Amino acid sequence: MPPDDELALLRRVAAKDRKAFEALYHLYYRRLFGYLLKITRRAELVEEVLNDVMLAIWKGAASFDGRSRPSTWIFGIAYHKALKALSRQPAERGDEPDGPEPVDSEEPESLAARRELATVLGRALGSLPPDQRAVVELTYYYGLAYQEISEIVGCPVNTVKTRMFHARRRLKELLPGLGVSSHTG
Amino acid sequence: MREREDRGERLHERISGLLPWYVNGTLSQQERERVEAHLAGCRRCQEEERACRQTAGAVQSAGEVAPTPHPVQFQRVLARIDEAEREEGTARRGGLSLAAPFRALIEATPLPLRGALVAQAAVILLLVGVLAWSELHSGPEAAQAPAVYHTLSNPAPPPPLTPALRLRVMFSPKTTEREIRELLLDVRGEITNGPSPLGVYTVEVPAGRDSPRVVLARLRSEPQVMLAEPAAGEGFQ
Predict the structure, then answer these.
(1) Count of other CB atoms within 10 angstroms of residue B46
(2) What is the dihedral of CA A23, A27, A32, A33, to 10 degrees?
(3) Is A55's CB within 8 Å of B67's CB?
(4) Chain A residue with minimal CA distance to B82?
(5) pLDDT band at residue A94, thresholds of 50, 70 and 90?
């Protein structure tokens, strides 16, 4: 849906139109679910946080000033609700996957290597603090510019770059071979 | 010489910091050109760029888990909205109905009489308190709960601590007993009457966990449920 249509929907939500709210809910449910799961890595939290986000949208739609895209505003709410929910939790569980995914012996070696790297990197990402992981996901999965990420997380662009810097350094520590060309060893 | 090296290092750090967004293709044209010019002669940045691309590939290949919402999920959000709006309404009305008229009355009273008015109000409150106290402590028979009689042939459960929601529910003819049991277990419902000649059961659900709206939505979302509605006299939708 084009941002203008989403804006119109949000305006109707601001006027307490429940039909529009339901349409917005269905429009964003899957996106928000995936996004919250990526940030929290806690499946049991996602549904509750998602409801918090939708309630905040209902209450705050009138305060949306239209200076950013509706999705930026909504993802910003989701980011803060996710971090708040995580802060209320006891110590973060180790969210390491059970083990490497089985590799199909028929697949080419390079593909198998890429899958293995993806699995190992996925684990390493899980060990990042949520605010750094959010920047990594927003950059690489959602393909957002650092300026838009700074709006979502509510921080200056330099903070976004700093978080990414720390995330990259941490990933390098965990995976020393990251970035090393296979031709050079 | 040293100054030039420092400048070069600062430029390297600035460019290196942009690499993730060079990789995801969101830099401005000017930034992109600066990155490419530096990248051509910097082995460290070339390695960093490869690391960024590998990370991007891993993040993207992780995909997304995004189920379709169950109808009951949206009903839960609506129930929370209703609850929040009820609380806001109560807070607003409470403030107006109790404090405001009393304050207005005091302000409308001439200054010399205000003390007398407040004292009179205090005496009334005291009397109300004494009456309530004596009502509560006027003997064991007064405080006794109304007797509940059970017949031996049809032992009724003790009255619930919280009022239960009473619903009329009709299942499709092919629904098995086990499916009915599982459906009711899901909403913690219990059949208290029925089936009627039309096949309608009366189901009681203890209040508290989910709002009536959510319970009804949950039941109505099941294909085996042909009818789910509040029993006569229950004032909810």
Answers:
(1) 15
(2) 90
(3) no
(4) A55
(5) very low
Quote the CA–CA distance of B14 and A178 in Å, as a whole number.
21
Q: Interior CA angle at A92 toward A89 and A98, to 5°?
A: 135
What ipTM score was computed for the predicted complex, to two decimals? 0.82
Q: Is the pLDDT of residue B79 over 70?
A: yes
CB contact under 8 Å between B80 and A51, yes or no, is yes
Please say whether the beta carbons of B206 and B160 come within 8 A: yes
Gap from A141 CA to chain B (nearest CA, Å): 5
**Positions of E strands within chain A:** none
Q: For residue B224, give how far its alpha carbon lies from the nearest alpha carbon of chain A (Å).
A: 25
- In the three-class reduction of DSSP (H, G, I as helix; E, B as strand; rest coil), residue B78 is classed as helix
- Residues in chain B within 8 Å Cβ distance of A139: 20-21, 24, 56
pLDDT in tens, B151-174: 555 545 544 445 678 888 888 777
Q: Which residues 54-113 of chain B have a CB within 8 Å of chain A? A: 54-62, 64-69, 73-74, 76-78, 80-81, 84
User: Which of A147, A168, A184 to mutate to probe the B interface, most B CBs <10 Å?
Assistant: A168
User: Distance (Å, rounded) from C-alpha B113 to C-alpha A180?
Assistant: 89
Nearest chain B Cα distance for residue A171, angstroms: 9
pTM of the model: 0.61
- As a whole number of angstroms, the distance between CA B10 and CA B139 comes to 87
pLDDT one-digit tens code per residue, A153-184:
999 999 999 999 999 999 988 887 777 665 44
Whether pLDDT at A125 is above 70? yes
d(CA A85, CA A91): 12
